[in-house]
Amino acid sequence: MFEAAYVPEPPTRPRYRRRDPESTTLHTAIRTHLEPFVEHLRREGGALPDFVLRELRAYLRCGVLAHGFQRLACNGCGGARLVGFSCGARTVCPSCGGRRMADLAAHLVDRVLPWVPIRQWVLSLPWNLRLLVAYDHDLLLDCHRALVRSLTCWQRRRARVAGIADARCGAVAQIQRFSADLSLNPHLHLLTFDGCFHRPDPHGPPVFRRLPPPSDADVCAVVQGVARRMHRALVRRGIDPHDRRRLQTAAADLGEDEPVLAHLAAASAQGRLAVGRHAGLRPATLGVVPPPDGARRPPQARSRARQCAEADGYNLHAAVSVRDDQRDRLEHLCRY
User: Fold this and answer.
1) What is the pLDDT of residues 289-322, one digit of tens each?
2) How far is the C-alpha of 188 from the C-alpha of 144, rounded, in Å?
3) Which of 15, 224, 288, 290 holds its CA 20 to 30 A away from the CA of 87?
């Protein structure tokens, strides 16, 4: 009698697949509609800025072998690959942007962020302020400073309550200008320590002291501090934060040099179509099944998010955190 022993097959090596940007939806949309859109603007007496056209046209050549490639060969096995030249663009190209994203995330995890618990804070701005912030980089930096200072002051107050007088905090900030649907939405992502560093011994190394996670009241206090600091920043510029027409006028003044881009940005910030026969309407949402004729929609339940607060249109979310031993998850969070 013989017994058949199970011998697992060796794992197959993943096969290399060349990047094929021409088959993606983004490449197809830009390739199909860019030049007709530019011609439409020319007939209407407008034009896109040169740097916008340069980025879009460079993306259409990125990874396409017809626009240049390099042949890489292995001296051991004799295999060869053709690798298309990349555009190196920072805005449109998902391949070049993804490479920078992965490099920066690995740099932060390996060389910058210590092995301590990390929490992500996300600040969204009021609708009336988004277009102005998108044009005024100094005002966007004011938002960044308001968030960092509010968080730092809150952390130091908690440290003093815990008996730490010389608390030191740290943060890594990233400005994102778009939402998931590519609409214009400047907002801030901040990675901070879930605690603080201090020196128990003046001549010794700094020691990390973990603090309790923020409560809903803590997040509310931080976002109220952001709103107060931004109110003072706008008043210093002679802008009433509650005057919607003044905010729109200030954004229009900044867009006088490029009126076409300003019009597109304003429509994108409002979530509306900018050109075409449906201009001014909101884009259709795919995947939503309308109810039958005569049927009423069921009432939607409203759930209150934890560790999230809003003040004067500023929304702050702090529910995502990473333990000190979750470096892979931290790198994923840095990529996001």
Assistant:
1) 555 544 444 433 333 458 899 998 899 999 999 9
2) 7
3) 15
Closest C-alpha to 83, from 13, 23, 16, 31? 16
Q: For residue 6, what pLDDT band results from cuts at 50, 70 and 90?
A: low
* CB contact at 8 A, 93 and 62: yes
* Cβ atoms of residues 91 and 281 within 8 Å: no
For residue 184, the one-letter residue type is L
Q: DSSP letter string over 260-292?
A: HHHHHHHHHHTT---SSTTTTSPPPPTTPPPPP
pTM to 2 decimal places: 0.82
- Could you tell me the two tokens for 173? 């900030």
Residues written for the chain:
336
Q: Dump pLDDT digits (tens) for 232-289.
A: 999 988 888 777 777 777 777 777 778 888 888 888 888 888 877 778 888 776 665 5
Q: Which helix (H) or strand (E) holds 51?
A: helix 50-61
- Which two three-digit tokens encode residue 202? 């003046």
The dihedral sign for the CA sequence 134, 137, 141, 146: negative
Mean confidence (pLDDT) of the chain: 84
Q: What are phi and psi of 303, to 5 degrees?
A: -105, 135
Q: Which two three-digit tokens encode residue 72?
A: 């890489």
